[in-house]
Design brief:
By secondary structure, the chain is mostly beta strands. Helices cover 14% and strands 40% of the residues. It is built from three helices and 14 strands. It is globular.
């Protein structure tokens, strides 16, 4: 290679490097989805199952109240299939024994088949020590109900929550799904209050807010999917 050719190659290389350095960096951060809860009552982007809903206010933002009915109910997010990622929301139940069960269902196949994490606010600060140990629960119906899990695996799929929220107030839940592991954090906790391996072999499915027996309030739902390489 003569001096002229070497100089041309060097100039081309420097020009290419300058062009690459001028390009904007592509962020590797996953994109967070913030569904519009105001669309729940009219089922705009949502599907109500065995529940009705009304829009309420939380600190100037739109939240929803799911009415109490017999049995399990959902508000399912349409047009989204959730696999791995982080699910965050604010929730408010009631400090009434056996009258407040609320959380999130995910990896759903139908209305009977899904995984769920839910809370029992009436157990958060219960005077009964045994009840305090049953504040947050993992289930995977129809096979793995809370009754079956409590009988066959006591203390493994339900735990106390820390820090302990006001049982009548709003609390923040952050649920990290990295199949098969599910980790649950409450409020500003850096340590999970519940860590389980999912009992289903489903790695994706529908996602929705979940209540049983009673109603509940939800706000600030955020979903951050994790794309695996």
């Amino acid at each position: 290679m003569n001096a002229k050719t070497h100089s041309s190659v060097l100039c081309f290389t420097l020009a290419a490097l300058a062009l690459l350095s001028a390009l904007p960096l592509v962020s590797a951060e996953p994109k967070t989805i913030a569904p519009d809860l105001a669309g729940v009552p009219g089922e705009h982007g949502w599907k109500l199952i065995n529940r009705s809903a009304t829009v309420i206010d939380k600190d100037g933002d739109k939240a929803i109240h799911l009415e109490g009915e017999d049995g399990t109910g959902f508000v399912r997010l349409e047009n989204i299939t959730f696999a791995d990622g982080v699910i965050e929301f604010d929730a408010r139940g009631r400090n009434v024994v056996q009258q407040s069960f609320l959380g999130v269902a995910f990896h759903g196949a139908d209305v009977r088949t899904y995984d769920a994490i839910y809370f029992r606010p009436f157990n958060f600060k219960s005077a009964d020590a045994a009840r305090r140990l049953r504040a947050v629960q993992y289930i995977s119906p129809p096979t793995y109900t809370w009754q079956k899990l409590r009988t066959e695996h006591p203390g493994q799929y339900e735990k106390p929550v820390a820090p302990v929220p006001d049982p009548d107030g709003w609390f923040h839940a952050r649920i990290v799904v990295a199949w098969p592991k599910v980790s649950v954090f409450v409020n500003d906790a850096t340590e999970a209050c519940l860590v389980v391996d999912q009992l289903s072999d489903r790695k994706k499915g529908w996602l929705g807010l979940w209540v049983d027996v009673s109603g509940g309030d939800f706000a600030n739902l955020r979903i951050t999917p994790t794309d695996k390489p």
